[in-house]
Specification:
Layout lengths: L2 H28 L12 H6 L1 H6 L7 E6 L5 E7 L2 E9 L5 E7 L2 E9 L5 E7 L2 E9 L5 E7 L2 E9 L5 E7 L2 E9 L5 E7 L2 E9 L5 E7 L2 E9 L5 E6 L7 E5 L12 H7 L44 H7 L9 H19 L23 E2 L7 H17 L18 E6 L15 E6 L1 H10 L4 H9 L5 E2 L10 E3 L5 E6 L1 H20 L8 E9 L6 E8 L10 E5 L20 E2 L6 E5 L1 H20 L6 E8 L21 H4 L5 H9 L1 H7 L5 E9 L11 E16 L7 H13 L10 H15 E3 L2
Parallel strand pairs: 26-27, 28-32
Antiparallel strand pairs: 1-2, 2-3, 3-4, 4-5, 5-6, 6-7, 7-8, 8-9, 9-10, 10-11, 11-12, 12-13, 13-14, 14-15, 15-16, 16-17, 18-21, 19-20, 20-24, 21-22, 22-23, 23-25, 24-25, 26-29, 28-30, 29-31, 30-31
Helix pairs in contact: 1-6, 7-9, 11-16
């Protein structure tokens, strides 16, 4: 296909979009002409009214249809443009039935869905999903009334179980989370905080006999500070845990001695009888039901057009296939449409529309980069330093006892809480002999970082094996902008960064706030720290090397094809590499970004909520110059290496072959219906999304976010907030003052933390949006 032909094809697609917009404008101005209902038997009148139908082709027609579909399904209701549109009833052969509102072939609006088992859902639908406010009644007696998002209970809702239990409170992704009250069939109830479907946080358990427990919970049992009260006024205050060694407290009688023989373990034995009912699962989801109209046996299957870049055409052929869904032929109407398109193309050329010729060229997968870093082997300038680091970490992690509790005393965060240990070559009572040079090893706040590793579910043995195993570390080829060096473990799970003294002070200063933040928000996007250490080399210089151990954001089963470092500023925010040298390891910046990322609704809501929380935390700690590091894995590419767009959303029921590669409805439903699988993804890690390509205006070089093109790609995303150790010190204030004289103050990175946080969020919320 020549360039001129591709321009014509683009022009055709633009014209179709313009024509559809013109129809909407016409309907909004003149209104919709009412059309008398007719059935399939009205063929005579249709044949005699060719002129009328042609002249009225710009008016969207609604009429009543009654169809028995090829596979035995049945539909009756309003119809428009070969789709159920308006109010209608669809009956599947397996006994499922939907009665309600439709929009272009999708259940959209208010409706009722029934299953052959007797289960029903009545409420709001969106794009085939139970989405909005609705009531589900199960066949065994379970019932839920409340808010839904994409087939999952999400928001406030009330659920009554068949066994007599009931829950009234907040839900997230199909599980109880937030504030809620659960009442068992015997009248006992819990009211308080929930997490992932279990009692977790602060709450109260009240018995019908007047006894109650008020305090903290974890996984359905008391954990931490709490008070048990009897109905006679006596109470027990203390620290609660399943581990008897961690239990301690004091009993306060009310005047009588009736409860002196009471054992706190009795409370755990009693609570073990109170289970949270999981309830019944929703049968086949409404969004999984295919409509036979999209797979009619009369449909004319046409060979799919392949463009010169190897991509499958989703434009011209598919538009005309849609007109033949019921086996009708395009005759006069099709010829008339082609005449209108030709006229529209001529008009576009006459107006000198140049945007068609500047349309984006097909995207290719970036060339694969080599495995990052140079292996530190014997003879390397930092070989001894690597051995010292591995010896120190093996000593620190190996000698530590398990963390008893995540509740730490303020003294644990004291910067003076550090341990020095000398490592002579011959070894000591506490250190092994080694082949490296003699050095001293310092552990900063060891109890805090031990607790962080437990909080982040890091196994000590795996941690040591990754960093201190037989495989050597890899040093990245060049230091970062700050002058720090980076090292990667061989399995890519951990990154080690050398630290300036000022950065170490910042981390120690904010360590208590950081610990409380990541403990309170398990989905926090801020970088994870696992250890802070210092190696002091012997010799005349007594050189100190401080370093922090972090999680490697891009350690994933998915290969990362594109990497972006996003701050929301424009000055100097482009890569300095020529196009020929950019590969999958290249870190691109704000002005290199050519996508808008669209997340599923529930994930997007959690994303904006977590970004707000993380930015508030960093602002309070006077931190600036941080960035969102984003990695993209493209799901589909041709053999030649071109990325395959997914196109716009396709009607429910189209197969992947028909609609182009995308995250299929079945995959989405399987993901959403299985909370454990949903939870395994985690915010910012291996998240399915759609990336819409953007283009910047040629006359606006510093446009941060380009214009959407309507070209979508199915991607898997990885992202997190990095570089959180730069406070707004005197050097940054001077940098801001100096650059503000030369450049627009809003374009530079060094700004006040409050302004930085606001600008960062404004930019990120433009780049990430709801895939609605």
């Amino acid at each position: 296909m020549s360039k001129d032909q591709s321009y014509v094809l683009k022009a055709w697609e633009v014209t179709v979009r313009k024509t559809q917009q013109a129809k909407k404008r016409a309907n909004s101005v003149f209104g919709t002409v009412p059309v008398a209902p007719h059935t399939d038997n009205d063929t005579t009148n249709d044949e005699n009214d060719d002129d009328t139908s042609t002249n009225g082709s710009n008016i969207e027609e609604f009429y009543h249809a009654e169809r028995v579909l090829p596979n035995g399904d049945y539909y009756t209701g309003q119809w428009s443009d070969n789709f159920p549109h308006g109010n209608g009833k669809y009956l599947w052969t397996d006994g499922c039935m939907y009665i309600g509102e439709w929009y272009n072939g999708k259940t959209m609006g208010s409706g009722k869905f029934g299953w052959p088992s007797g289960a029903t859902y009545e409420g709001e639908f969106k794009s085939g999903y139970m989405d909005g406010v609705g009531t589900y009644t199960g066949p065994s007696g379970d019932a839920y009334k409340g808010q839904w998002v994409m087939n999952l209970k999400h928001g406030h809702g009330v659920k009554s179980f068949a066994n007599g239990d009931a829950y009234d409170g907040e839900w997230r992704r199909g599980l109880q989370e937030g504030q809620g009250k659960y009442q068992w069939s015997d009248g006992n109830h819990y009211i308080g905080e929930w997490k992932n479907g279990t009692i977790c946080g602060k709450g109260s358990f009240v018995w019908t006999n007047g006894n109650r427990y008020d305090g903290f919970w974890d996984e359905g049992f008391p954990r931490g500070n709490g008070t048990f009260k009897w109905d006679d006024g006596s109470f027990y205050v203390g620290n609660w845990s399943k581990d008897p060694e961690e239990m301690n407290g004091t009993y306060y009688p009310s005047g009588n001695e009736g409860n002196l023989d009471w054992d706190p373990k009795d409370l755990f034995n009693n609570l073990s009888e109170y289970k949270i009912c999981s309830g019944e699962r929703v049968p086949t989801l409404p969004s999984q039901k295919k409509l036979s109209v999209w797979n009619s046996s009369k449909r004319i299957e046409k060979p799919r057009r392949m463009s010169v870049d190897g991509r499958v055409s989703v434009g011209v052929d598919r538009a005309f296939e849609k007109m033949n869904m019921w086996g009708t032929e395009i005759c006069d109407g099709g010829a008339e449409m082609r005449k209108e398109l030709d006229a529209e193309l001529m008009r576009l050329e006459a107006e000198g529309i140049q945007s068609l010729k500047s349309s984006p060229v097909p995207m290719k997968l970036p060339k694969a980069g080599r495995k990052q870093g140079e292996t530190i082997s014997k003879g390397h300038r930092n070989y001894d330093l690597m051995l010292n680091l591995q010896l120190g970490i093996r000593h620190s992690v190996g000698r530590q006892a398990p963390v008893a509790s995540l509740d730490l005393k303020p003294s644990a965060f004291d910067p003076k809480d550090k341990i020095w240990r000398r490592f002579p070559r011959e070894g000591t009572k506490y250190t092994p002999p080694h082949q490296s040079t003699e050095f001293k090893w310092k552990d900063y706040c060891p109890l805090v970082f031990r607790s962080l590793r437990k909080l982040f579910k890091v196994d000590p043995a795996d941690y040591m094996l990754s960093i201190c195993g037989n495989d050597a570390l890899r040093e990245l080829s060049s230091p970062g902008k700050s002058g720090s060096f980076f090292y990667l473990t061989n399995d890519d799970r951990y990154m080690i960064k050398t630290m300036k003294k000022s950065e170490t002070k910042v981390l120690l200063r904010m360590l208590a706030a950081y610990y409380n933040h990541v403990r309170a928000f398990e989905n926090s996007l801020v970088i994870r720290f696992f250890g802070l250490h210092c190696v002091k080399l012997n010799g005349p210089t007594q050189k100190k090397v401080r370093f922090v151990i972090m999680g490697n954001l891009f350690c994933s089963k998915y290969s990362v094809h594109r990497r972006f470092d996003l701050k929301g500023s424009s000055l100097g925010r482009t890569t300095d590499k020529p196009e020929s040298e950019i590969d999958s390891n290249t870190i691109l910046k704000d002005l290199d970004l050519n996508f808008i990322f669209r997340l599923q609704k529930a994930w997007y809501q959690e994303f904006i909520r977590q970004i707000d929380k993380d930015c508030e935390f960093l602002e309070q700690e006077r931190i600036m110059d941080y960035s969102l590091l984003v990695g993209i894995h493209f799901r589909e590419a041709s053999v030649a290496g071109e990325l395959i767009p997914s196109g716009a959303r396709t009607p429910i029921g189209e197969s992947e072959e028909e609609s182009g590669p995308r995250l299929s409805r079945a995959e989405v439903d399987q993901l959403l219906s299985d909370p454990s699988r949903w939870a395994s993804i985690r915010l910012g890690t291996n998240m399915p999304a759609r990336a819409e390509r953007t283009m910047r205006k040629s006359d606006c070089e510093l446009q941060l976010v380009g214009e959407p093109t309507g070209e979508f790609y199915e991607v898997v995303m990885i992202f997190g907030i990095i570089d959180i150790l730069q406070d707004y010190d005197i050097s940054k204030k001077l940098e801001h003052a100096y650059k503000s004289i030369q450049y627009d103050p809003s374009s530079i990175s060094a700004v006040d933390p409050r302004q930085y946080s606001r600008r960062f969020r404004d930019f990120i919320f433009k780049v990430f949006t709801d895939d609605n």
